[in-house]
Sequence to fold (128 residues):
Amino acid sequence: VLVLRLSPEPFHLVKGYEFKMLNKFVDYFTLPSYNITRDTTNLTYHHSRLMGVSDIQNTDALIDVVVGLGAPVHKLVMTVPAFGNTFNLMDPERNLPGSAVTGPPTTITYQQVCQLLSRGNWTLEREE
Fold:
């Protein structure tokens, strides 16, 4: 079985893969659904967005790109993260997506995410 991990970067998907040729040899293509959004503006972000409103930095859009380029749906495997990111907020009162941070995020393990969630005091926020 031959599995090829694809880039989560739309530019690399378009310029770097010849799916018509690869389909002859590759049994499965894996598409990571994490680290799609990068920390480039010192703002909080979700590193594994499944859907998006107005951009291509989400898993749904990447699947559309890959299928549009010729990868068969039955060969796609979406991988999901088992980790999270924490941010140091500039102002703890401003804690929505897109809030200012003091530096890059810290990656935490799935177990650490579960520990933080079990402490309670969480508010669910969604991007519009």
The chain has a mean pLDDT of 87.
